[in-house]
Hints:
Elements (H helix, E strand, L loop, with lengths): L3 H26 L6 H25 L8 H24 L5 H12 L3 H13 L1 H36 L2 E3 L19 E3 L4 H13 L3 H18 L5 H11 L2 H14 L9 H25 L4 H11 L5 H10 L3 H29 L1
Antiparallel strand pairs: 1-2
Amino acid sequence: MIGWEDVYKVVVAMLPLYFALILGFGSVRWWHIFTHEQCDAINRFVCFFTLPLFTFEFTANVDPFKMNYLFIGADAISKFIIVVVLALWAKCSSKGSYCWSITSFSLSALTNSLVVGVPLLKAMYGPMAVDLVVQSSVVQAIIWLTILLFVLEFRRSGTGISSTATISDSSVKPGETGKDLEGNEVVTITRPSFWRLMRIVWLKLAMNPNSYACIVGLAWAFISNRCHFKMPTIMEGSILIMSRAGTGTAMFSMGLFMALQEKFIACGTSLTLFGMVLRFIAGPAAMAIGAIAVGLHGDILRVCIIQAALPQSITSFIYAKEYGLHANVLSTAVIFGMMVSLPVLVAYYAILEFLN
């Protein structure tokens, strides 16, 4: 049973994140230390250095031979449900869009498992829950964040190339050159073939350390657990010195982003409520369906549902900022999600225990 002491431990784990966020916010809004261009540079530093090493560090320490594959299957089914619903919404609804489907997937499927999930679920269900939360984080880093990165890069590459335009010379009369064109000039938009676009995307992903940090980490986990040896101290120290700054610098970058916005709630009230519904209702509902479908029950089923209701992934905001896609929505989701997550998760715990 969770008590006030356990709640205090969660609060203690969360408050340092807000300290980093306030420092980032104040450095721009109050103290005017950084310019807009410098804020972008800091975000790129987080995206290309601290987050990849943070991802590698915790992925390399997991034991892949002791993972709960039914739990991973339930997670995959829940993500598949979300993807199908969003794809149908984008295709069939007049209000649906490809870009909002990407953001909605981040809001409903990607969680901040390590910071809040580990201390809270350990208090609720013990070490078994901690193992599942770490496994969820590893799978999210290896599969879902990599897919998100691919989709964002695909969108940016496609948009960048499709804006190229050529003007046919067939309508140019002798003596006419350049805006002089009038009447029946032909303008065509050049779009790359699917395979050419895929080649561009894969080349860009190959230069992005986020796309393979988790894969290298998992490969190391397989080798080290099979052969029973540890990472050399000099290598481990080099990784830890940067990876330990991952979450803090991500929150600092979010504070910078907030300070550059005109309003504290950067995306408005309606989008904030929309994000909260996706985060705390749609995500857990999809996970409940996936867990029941693979036959999970008891405490494992409860852990599945509660971990799906954890606050928004900080990494999803970093990617949204880097790729220019609804970063204001993701930043608000992270901040408000962290604020309301504790009462929401305790409420989930109480309801699930009552239904037992």
